[in-house]
Structure prediction request, 675 residues.
Amino acid sequence: MNPVGIEWRFRRLSKMSASEVGWRISEHVRRKRWASRQVLPAASPRSWALRSATAPWDSARNAVFPTFPWAEVLRAVPSEARQQVIAAAEEVLAGRWELLGAVRQDMEDPDWFFDPVTGRRAPQVDYCFNVDHRCEDVTGNVKQIWELSRMHHLTVLAAAFALSGDERYAERTASHLRSWWAQNPFLSGVHWTSGIEAGLRLITWVWVRRLLDGWSGAGGLFERNDVALAQIWWHQHYLANFRSRGSSANNHVIAEAAGLLVAALAFDWFAESPLWREEATRVLEQELTSNTFPSGVNREMAFDYHGFVTELAVVAAAEADWNGHPLSDDLWTLLYRMFDVVAATVDVKLRPPRQGDGDNGRALVIDPSATGRSSGLLAIGESLFDAPGWWPRVRPTVTSTLLGTMAGRRAAAGQPERRPCHFTDAGLTLMRSSASDGEEIWCRCDAGPHGFLSIAAHAHADALAVEVRHDGIDVLADPGTYCYHGEPFWRSYFRSTLAHNTIEVGRRDQSTSGGPFLWTRHARSQLIELQTDEDGAVTMWTAEHDGYRSLAPPVVHRRSVRLASRLRRLEIVDCLETTGGHGFRMAFHLGPEMHARMVGHDVELSWSHGAFSRSATLFLPDGPTWSLSRGATDPILGWYSPRFGENHPAWAVIGEGVCNGDGIDTYTTVLQFHS
Prediction:
């Protein structure tokens, strides 16, 4: 099934500026011309010189990789973190590695082109720019295939070697690298179709080489290996010539620049290395600023990508410090704000908001997946900055210890004295109950931009949506993402207005989708009022959006949320302002741990909390007709995706009604938590 038809191409073209159209035409021509540079997998390494008598990487054959102070670092690694890394590496040696919800069982000798979800095998020999990676019939689930070739399992193996000295981990790492390098020469197959993948592989290879530094075979695997030198040069050459721009310059361009910078610094073996370093530094500084609000929130309005971009930036910045080419003070200041956002928005269990797309992308994986994204980021932040007292305390990780060694500590300028609860530029507001009032009630309210750039690729149609947790457990839940390619109906559902805790009017989304990563019309939200208590905590939030102004007659949705901490109550007041009789659906999606039953006009909620049980009542407004749905497929309704590639049934409370058309209809919902 291919989502990229002629209609999509016209819609995508409409979101580009004239200069971007011109650049894309020139890049298309360049891609056609580069077909003559393709190196086929069957070619011998001696013929990998891009049709020239001398390979461009010849000058690197006497290269030396800089040593790292392992004795100092290893003393600082906590015992628990060390054991977790070694346990994860043992799983890889046993042939197992989990990727996006699927467990690979072939990790002794993986097939780099096989998708375990669909059973398909992606093209290996085709010229990369002729491979339609968006079409599942061609590549299978390309995310599964690409994820394996990011080789995060190799940094875990290499870290286990560094921590234990056990050469089994180094030898398995070397065999996988040689396998991938041999099967994926320049511009052949699916792994050369995307710059973000090339950037992430370079970061992996730098860290594998660093972590294997005490192994006698490390130099022969990398700097004294013509195949490795060719691959490292090819990847940087590719990134220097094919960069995401214009309406596509989101997290992809950050990954491309970070990968090129890290490699140009650590593998500074080539004639082009200084030029690549300077260009990557310029792009990273420029694009990170472009991708980030001044407050530190990522502009994609997809919080998983906030974590991903933060990881990319800090890995690149630490590498630059270590190699004597530090990035600007302005970038480090922005990076601190990005960490500050993580610290300010996590709940009591260190879970970040679930907003917009998320594919669990990682820049550098050394600690196993059991280490949560936010706790791992906060550990890195604490190793680099003099964190304020309100940051949640976390344990150091192997990654935080390594990056802290490379970059040292910095004083953070302009630290807020207390935890921020509202980010004006991003339209992100957090309400929390007082610690003295019992277990945490955490509520996220959304009145921010729809997404980033003209296509808002990773946004969801979730204006004015709320997300509510009780002691870190989802009560009113954001559904997540589940998939990108291959399952268009599921992709559409998880991005839809109906799939979020807000109101859908006229059986249409607030914003208009033009494809799986394209929005052609963006709803605009605005904050109307905030009320705070004497400690600065938000107690009431009011906002509205214009996503239904194009209806005839138009509709304005306005929502107020009030948290009464001592009463353990959250009140949601929705107003639909219109003179027409539009149908609407109001949705409240429950977390996967919630048990729900209708009792009269209300919904009784219960869930387990360790050895105890908890309960709440959702008092629903009069007017709409209310029902419960769970795990429905025709149409899709009542699902929760805990992470990319996984999908589980969960209760959805749906109210269907019709606007009176006499001005303003008001609907009040109360979520009452019980002792």
